[in-house]
Every structure is written in structure tokens, then in C-alpha cells.
Amino acid sequence: MKTYRRPSQRAALICPLCGAAETAFVYLDDRREYFRCRCCELVFVPASYFLSLPAERAHYDLHENDSDDPRYRKFLSRLVEPMLEYLRPGDCGLDFGSGPGPTLSVMFTETGWAMDIYDPAYQPDETVWRKEYDFITASEVVEHLHQPLAEFQRLWSILRPGGVLGVMTKRVQNLLAFESWHYKTDPTHVVFYSDATFHWLSDHLAGRLEIIGSDVILLHKS
Hints:
Layout: E1 23-28, E2 33-37, E3 43-44, H1 53-60, H2 70-84, E4 92-96, H3 104-110, E5 114-118, E6 133-139, H4 148-157, E7 159-168, H5 175-178, E8 191-192, H6 195-205, E9 207-212, E10 216-221
Parallel strand pairs: 4-5, 4-6, 6-7
Antiparallel strand pairs: 1-2, 2-3, 3-8, 7-10, 9-10
């Protein structure tokens, strides 16, 4: 794995998740630098590489996610199916980061669950933050968050006790594989989580962590 010696006078970057200053440079490609937090093991890019919301939306508009596409539905079912095991009659949910073509909300609605959607670029319905939900989904969105701790805390605050926050995101397996990892090539992906990162987050939120496969995380609220 390529690493580069950084200037000794460079100020330490603050981890955008846990707030620790114990971060270290780990990789440089032809577009961005990547750092890793020694506390929560989040890998992240400095804020100077963040895209504006219009630029992010222009990139998202290139995606071809169709709610009628059976392959896309099968992909999302990796999050839907384990969450269904915890839902109770009358539960209502929120799809956070629903994107230009909401599909998770459709899949839950089809199975009998009421859903709201929120997306800062496509469906910025601020009324959702004044409600409470029994379950919240965040599929392929947490890697885009510029302020991940603030967003997780905001979602946690509107999740009812006994509820579940379902996250779908690819996780960092090891730094040796990071150099060739396709997931980091998306310019809107700015934070990358590992198992250790989600353990830290679960402890911070006082939740119960459930890791399912390579890209599904459930955070249960007591």
C-alpha cells in the first residue's frame, strides 16, 4: 500500500465522527487525501474535498436506480429483510437519504408499513425532524455525510425507544485493500466505516449493534 510522509508541521485533523485529534494520513490518490482516526477507525477525507450540494446532486443524477428494477430491489432487500423481523403492527418509518428515486420506502409500504422520506437534495422535508419513528433506514447514504456524528445523533433523537436504525454501507476491511477499493472512487463518498467504527458509534449512542454481512448494520435503541 502506498503511503506518503506528511510535513511534520501539518496540524492534526479532527475526526468528523468521534472528534479525536489522533488521526493519521494513510493514502493519497490522484484526487484526494485520506486520513484514519486511531480512536474510532473512521477513514475520511478532509473537508476541502467536499462537493457542494448542487455538485453532489449532479453526481447523484447520474445514478440509474429504478424502483421497478428487480436487481436493485434484491440489493436493497439485504437491508429490508432483517429489519422486517423487528417491526410491529402500526410501526412507521423514515427513509433517510431516499435519493432521486425512492425505493426502500416503496418496498416497506408494499409490505404494510407507513413511511416518510427525507433527502437534502431531493426531498428536504424538514417536518420529519419534528416527528418520531419506530424504524429508520439509511441505505448507501452515511458515507456521504459531512458531519456524520451530528447526523447520527439527529436520527437517533427521533427514533423511538425499541426502534431500529438500519444502515447499508460498504465497510473498510483493512488498509492494505483500501488503495484498490472501488468504493472510495465516488467523489461524494467522504467517510468510510469499519466494524470498529460502528462499535464505537453504538457505544456512543448507548445502542445495541447488529452486524449483518458485509454492508448491513442495525443499531437498536433501548
